[in-house]
Amino acid sequence: MAQPVPPKRYSGIAQFLHWVIAALIIAQFALAWTAEDLPLGMHKLALFAKHKSFGMTVLMLALLRLAWRFANPPPALPSGMTGIERSLARVTHIAFYVLLFAMPLTGWMMSSAKNYSVSWFGLFTWPNLVAPNETTFGWLRSTHDTLSDVLLAVAVLHILAALKHHFWNKDDVLLRMLPGTRAGKKP
Amino acid sequence: MTRSLVLAVSLLVAGFGCGVVRAAPAYVTDAGASSIDFTGVQAGAAFKGTFHKFSAAIEFSPDALPSAHFDVVIDLSSVDTLDKDRDTTMRGPDIFDVAHFPTAHYVTRTVTKTATGYSATGSLTLRGVTKDVPIDFQWAASAAGAAPVGAAAKLQGTATLKRLDFGVGQGDWKSTEWIADSVKIAFSLVLKPKP
Question: How far apart are CA A106 and CA A110, in angstroms?
């Protein structure tokens, strides 16, 4: 039985999931930063309603993405990378996957703890994960905040690394995740 | 003279005993065992709150519906939605405005039997606005074994009202995009005889 040949590019589905989740995360930061300092009012409720709907969307897409990744292994890292670079890339990617679940889950628990159940775009309501409790909420909020700082740091590292691969190493690491480019495609 | 007075009193007593309008017994609530809850909808998701302080004077007997009468006063500042920020906002000028309207007051006019229990028409005064709000309820007397031990009766029911009918929600809060207009009320009153 022949070993499957590892792909040279991320699949279309993997690319789609990567960029949709990336866009949602950027929107999440924008919504959270705008909403958190507002007094409790209609505007704050509206922004957090979107934040929660987007967050639950990220959670569902993350599940899909992880399942897709197991079924469709990603392309191998370029052969020229050092051991440290490989480890760093691996840790960054694992951290992303952990955060893709930890951020929505802690957010969801925050909503439950504050007795603001999470609706998904007004279409249905998610069950509460924890009982309403101010102390629990405070703890979850600081966890969610800290994780968002970690996510921001990991994202900056990820973007800088992708740019370094593209402009410094001149390999196809960035292009193989970019739709519409020909990196790794057969001529 | 004495004889006719005794006769008159006897007739009067007899008249009350089997007269056309029977008086319904009067009850007050066992505060610890009773609750008045509400469910609102924010951003598509229901949230529940309760009022910790209220008083209710209930006159009711299944045999004397014409004389049934409920008078309920709710202390709006006792609102509790398990989130202090939201409770503070609800007490504030745009929602309940407890500084000017500290209580909600419900008084029934008529009570009728329905297929599943009873229904009452009555008026609710909230935020200075008085409007009719019908309620549906069940009555369980202790004799039937349905009321809690030691209680005389249990009164359980629901109502639905539109918050904006009463001006509950001013300014931005008038919008129903993120806070639904309709609010459900659920109450469970454990009653003991009025002392």
Answer: 6
